[in-house]
Amino acid sequence: MNKNFVFTSPAPRVLFGRGTVNAVAKELDLHKIERAFILCGGSGMEVAKRIVAASPSHHIEILRLTDPGITAEEFNRAVEHAKRTGANGFIALGGGTPIGLGKSLAANTGMRYLGIPTTYSGSEMASNWTYGKGKDAKNGSSLAALPSTAIYDPDLTLGLPAKISGQSGMNAMAHAVESLYGADRSPAVEMLAEAAVRELGASLPRVIDKPDDIEARTDALHGAWMAAAFRAQVGVEHAVAQKIRNRFGLSHAGTHSVVVPYALAFNRNVAKYAMEKIERAMGVKDAGLGLYDFNVRLGIPTGLKDLGMKKSDIEDAADFVGATPFPNPRPVSRADLVEIITQAWHGKPPRF
Questions:
Q1: Does position 202 have pLDDT exceeding 60, yes or no?
Q2: Who is most buried in 152, 194, 205, 282, counting CB within 10 A?
């Protein structure tokens, strides 16, 4: 256990449990949001309409997002909508796109909002924000990006397809396992990260086998919340996965689920304390191989090639990832990045 640490918790207010989505009106009142709108994609329209019907005094409108990803066009449309309607707050409902757009909107306008995630990735608990693509992309990190209240209602995850659930859950797993060797980890983070690994490891196969199992969904969402809310600095897994998925337009959750076993295998000999916790939580003998086998068990892609990345992109990916320094318990050279990305591209069991 790391005995010297600093622990800072800017975590937002959290409502967790079945039916908590029904508390939206009370939460809007709590944060003095008199007029709001909902950011959501097509899959969130039914829930959004329910929220509107249950909150008549807040004059809620629905702003349906149509662009894939968090584009500058959607950001500008949301800003203009807020100005036109006089809204002083909003609700971000759904997966990575509405939650990510909500974070960017809040960070750049100062508007307060409620975050209602319907996946397991945990973006709502991270202060980083980004929108736009390529040279025109804007990004940063601000506590203003965090929701005033995060509402975790397991019932809202029931419609998430099994494959996407597995990938999203492994995105949460990536937060938890990297927190176990993060340079700024603390006893609280270590304890909760290990608990998140255990809960995700036990619940995700049940979600895959029976997607309508609400107890499994509840456990998976709880594990995902712990992984997201109590985290330490990320390492090579996040550096590789985040950069590659942005560079080549790959699935966010899918890229993380592919890369995490290779990152663990690479760090194994220098972070044995973390590996022991992961192995104990998962009931496996080797953390990297164990999570690779776990991906196979979940029936989700194990290689970057399965997500659409070309083999010819590996060298470019290594340069792109290595251009920005990142913390990791083991120094990472360009050759190391090429090897990690190459193994992750092929999708075979990790070997380091």
A1: yes
A2: 152
